[in-house]
Amino acid sequence: MPLHVKILGSNSASFAHNRHHTSQLLQIQDQYFLIDCGEGTQMQFKRYGIKFSKIDHIFISHLHGDHYYGLIGLLSTMHLYGRVKPLILVGPPGLIEIISVQLRYSETHLNFPIEYIEWVPNEYQLIFENEKLTVHTLPLDHRVPCSGYLFKEKPKKRRLNKVFLPDRLPPNEIQLLKNGEDVYDDQGKLRYANAEVTLPPNRQLSYAFCSDTKYKPGLLNWISQTDLLYHEATFMEDMRERAENTFHTTASQAAQLALDAGVGRLLIGHFSTRYKNLDPVLREATSVFKPTSLAVEGQVFTINDHGEHG
Ligand SMILES: [Zn+2]
Ligand SMILES: [Zn+2]
Questions:
Q1: In this structure, are residues 135 and 153 in contact, taking their beta carbons and an 8 Å threshold?
Q2: DSSP notation for 76-94
């Protein structure tokens, strides 16, 4: 199944030029992950027809308001809509305390449990795992503890080559073949040689989300060969000093990182309000790394099973 990233917001600091604060909806196989939840995120859900009930995991990068001020509103709406199933929330130290205080003083008792997973600042950690994927934290260099996330599918099973197999196979034989084993009949005679009737597994797709950070070449250790990289590009090269002083990255630096990491495609976002027209920002990045796109709200970026971008 393809991997999709839908952009819900990509402006830094304040709402401007019809651009909202950072938020993205990642779909891997049949699972949805909300990454960052800036103010207005639940309005974006409505705008783009996203069901609140789809979201079982929320990942927050850091405690600057433009990345999580929408969270308490979203949680409250989930509660009002009658959610009872648990929600996994991943984020920095302090986040669950802030949410708890907000809920306590509004005397709101959520109908659903929040399972909070707190990461350790400045560490590359396996922070979440289920049967289909792993998520690692990507330690970033920002003014407050900040972490990106690397989502990666687990190894997949072999695919059945229908050309060489009957239409209906018993479930146990399907499992054996998908696991790479040969199938024998009751007499011990080889019925299907795995190599002849199966195809290699689909590629394990990966997505790296790098939120607010100074240019950090050390990220190459972890994001190399990622299918899709989102990286902030708050400023352009002529503002490099400002980018450094405010712990942000320029479009050219983000593109350099993508180039060095050999990623499939780069998405840039977290644009400064000073750029109403984003064409020059994109031009600066593509001059270094051609397969770059702007993280424009409402757009969906897709990678298919072969790692191709659509
Ligand atoms: Zn920010
Ligand atoms: Zn920030």
A1: no
A2: HHHHHTT--S-EEEEE-TT
Name the residue type at position 43: M
Is the CATH number of domain 3-156+202-303 3.40.50.720? no
Shortest-distance ligand to the CA of residue 234: 1
Angle at 20 between CA 110 and CA 254, to 5 degrees: 110
Q: Which helix (H) or strand (E) holds 286?
A: helix 279-286
End-to-end Cα distance, the chain: 13
The answer to whether the predicted template modeling score (pTM) of the entire model surpasses 0.85 is: yes
Domain assignments of the chain as residue spans, ordered by start: 3-156+202-303, 159-198
Tell me the residues surrounding ligand 2 (ion) with CB < 5 Å.
Answer: 64, 212
Cβ neighbours, 10 Å, residue 167: 5
Q: What is the pLDDT of residues 196-221, one digit of tens each?
A: 999 999 999 999 999 999 999 999 99
| ∠ Cα 274 280 281 (to 5°) | 70
CA of 38 to the centre of ligand 1 (A): 9
Structure confidence by residue, pLDDT tens digits, 258-281: 999 999 999 999 999 999 999 999
